Recover the amino acids of this structure.
């Protein structure tokens, strides 16, 4: 299930950053961006909105006052450069309170809290994302999901190994990427590796093979063999 969200912020750069972040989360769909609370009110009256990313310091009416004025508000994640309203925000039952500049991993943590609160199920078939965006080399780079072979973690960054494209180095945690990927197509088999199950060419009790690359199983990642055996996308017999 996809959840409708809006961004309410009077700063265009802040809106742009949030839009780029939201495009990486398959559970969310932007149905509007607003420069003030009056534009937000119009959208809330016309559309079903599940989540609102709400700035605090805006013209005419600040974000906390706007939220108080709503009879049936959506879930809210505050996005602001000011720490002073945090207590009031949580008194208003906000999902989270993000301080600008907002790192992507902190944004994703807030979105996961929202998802936990509403329990949306990711529909893992035709609704799985065809591509994701990753920030690298000072730009957002499109990565087609079907091109991903496996993802490897190195301390504070990851490397996305792709079919027919150069490896992509991204400053992001493996756990945050795991939440972005379609669960029916990818499997974490080690604290440092996520693999695309439909790219597996063979496996043994110790590792999987993707072409000539051997990737080890982690001792703390459950019954990987059983998961692979039950996955119609994976290679089903040991080579």
């Amino acid at each position: 299930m996809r959840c409708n969200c809006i961004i309410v912020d009077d700063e265009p750069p802040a809106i742009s950053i949030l839009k780029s972040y939201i495009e990486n989360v398959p559970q969310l769909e932007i149905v509007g961006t607003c420069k003030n609370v009056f534009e937000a009110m119009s959208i809330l009256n016309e559309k079903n909105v599940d989540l609102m990313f709400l700035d605090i310091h805006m013209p005419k009416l600040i974000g906390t006052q706007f939220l108080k004025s709503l009879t049936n508000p959506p879930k809210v994640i505050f996005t602001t450069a000011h720490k002073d309203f945090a207590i009031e925000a949580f008194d208003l039952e906000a999902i989270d309170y993000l301080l600008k500049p907002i790192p992507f991993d902190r944004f994703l943590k807030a979105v996961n809290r929202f998802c936990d609160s509403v329990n949306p199920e990711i529909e893992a078939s035709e609704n799985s994302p065809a591509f994701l965006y990753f920030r690298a080399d000072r730009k957002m780079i499109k990565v087609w999901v079907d091109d991903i072979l496996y993802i490897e973690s190195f301390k504070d960054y990851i490397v996305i190994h792709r079919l027919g494209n150069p490896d992509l180095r991204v400053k992001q945690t493996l756990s945050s990427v795991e939440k972005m990927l379609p669960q029916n197509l990818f499997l974490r088999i080690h604290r440092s590796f996520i693999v695309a199950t439909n790219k597996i060419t063979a496996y043994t009790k110790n590792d999987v093979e993707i072409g000539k690359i051997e990737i080890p199983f982690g001792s703390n990642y459950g019954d990987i063999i059983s998961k692979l055996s039950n996955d119609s996308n994976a290679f089903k017999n040991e080579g």
Notes: The first helix runs from residue 12 to 22. The chain has seven helices and 15 strands.
